[in-house]
Predict the 3D structure of the following.
Amino acid sequence: MFDVYPSIFSEQLNIRLQGLGHGAGDKVLLNIYDVTGRLVKSFSRLTPDALRPMLITWYGNDNQGRQVSCGVYFIRLAVGSVGETPDYIETKKAILLK
């Protein structure tokens, strides 16, 4: 349902979402976490209708716009109905190097 590339990056990480379709439920969450499990970046306003292949670029900044440190990050996609356990969860790993 999604790919991240390049998996080792220094300037930007591309996140390509595809194949969610109309049956994907009401809620799509795309979040990036550091190795401690702390939420670093959230991509909001994603809906299944908007995800007919979509490309999101992450420039290594947090939700406040600050540059994050080098290290391993986990990109997590969760799709499902509002207020329920997600129907689908997938996590990918990326490494930020400067």
Summary: Residues 1 and 63 are 24 Å apart (CA to CA). DSSP finds no helices and eight strands in the chain. The mean pLDDT is 86. The radius of gyration is 13 Å.
